[in-house]
Amino acid sequence: MGVTERKPAGTSFTSWIDQQIEEAAKRGAFDDLPGAGKPLPARGDEDAGQAWLRDYVRREGMAAEELLPAPLRLRKEAELAHLRAGGGCGRDGLQMAGGSARGAGDRAGR
Question: What average pLDDT score do residues 53-79 get?
Fold first, then answer.
């Protein structure tokens, strides 16, 4: 399969995309796709975006943590490393990434 050419000047994106799809269908690019001719799985009342994301994570064999924003992922990794190194949980079962558990009362005077 070759590189797709650039959109010609003066052509709308919609008509250019439709043209690309039509040409791919003529070449048979959509023949024999998995699930062809089968109904889409019923999702019930689930949020379609969340269901798609869960299916993607499962299908790709990813850990859900890989989707976290970097600061949250790093904090989680730091907490796990601390626990593996023998650190415990502080008061109220909270463990901060920096190794100290602080409650709201500890920060009130700052």
Answer: 88
Q: State yes or no: pLDDT of 39 exceeds 70.
A: yes
Residue indicated by tokens 């558990």: 101
For residue 35, the one-letter residue type is G
pTM for the whole structure:
0.34
Q: What is the DSSP string of the chain?
A: --PPPPPPTT--HHHHHHHHHHHHHHHTTTTT-TTTTSPPPP-TTS-HHHHHHHHHHHHHT--GGGGS-HHHHHHHHHHHHHHHTT----GGG---TTS----HHHHTT-
Residue ranges of the domains in the chain? 69-101
Among 62, 64, 1, 63, residue whose Cα is nearest residue 29? 1
